[in-house]
Amino acid sequence: MPQSVDHLVEGFKRFQHNYFGSSSVFDTLSEGQRPSTLIIGCCDSRVHPPMLTDTAPGEVFTVRNVANLVPPCEPDNPHASVAAALEFAVLALEVEHVIVMGHSSCGGIRALMNRTAIADSALGKWLSMAEPARQHVCQHYPDADAKEQQRLAEQAAILVSLNNLLSYPWLADRVAEGSLVLHGWYFDLREGALWGYDPEQHAFTELVCPLTPVTMQAA
Length: 219
Ligand SMILES: [Zn+2]
Hints:
This protein is an alpha/beta fold. It has 9 helices and 6 strands; from the N terminus they run ααβαβαβαααααβββ.
């Protein structure tokens, strides 16, 4: 028997108390949204972009899917839901930033690396988009251990998605003219750190380092 969802209803009551109390952020948001940023994240339950960026409702437009992938622009795109969200965010909402946010311990990338997804399943077809990331890691880091290969693949998949974003002409035009900026972020959920892709260094560099452990001072 599945557990009840009563705790989620109770959660909504707390949300309601916080956001629909004396003054409501939704007073203005009910008229429309004007987010400046689109975050493409994984649907992993531990990686919630508005929570990770401590942003309020209305600030971040979010697309979430397995392994935070962006399909390339192609006729009869079989993964049109992501393309539709991209069109809406970029062309209608005119966001100024698109962030592809990957993360450590990603089950999707693990399935890609271990080839555990059935090839003709929906998941297998979806993950095949990140196959260039798997091939890159296997080719360039064949001797790395499985854990390191997974981390490298998680980061390489972010770059695959960033490249795929540029295959949409209307998006690439905005990047070229400077009205839209692309970012690749990597959340290390074990350390609580945030990494960002630096195109000049061709590497992920630390944007937010882990909290240093607080050491107790002797009295
Ligand atoms: Zn994931």
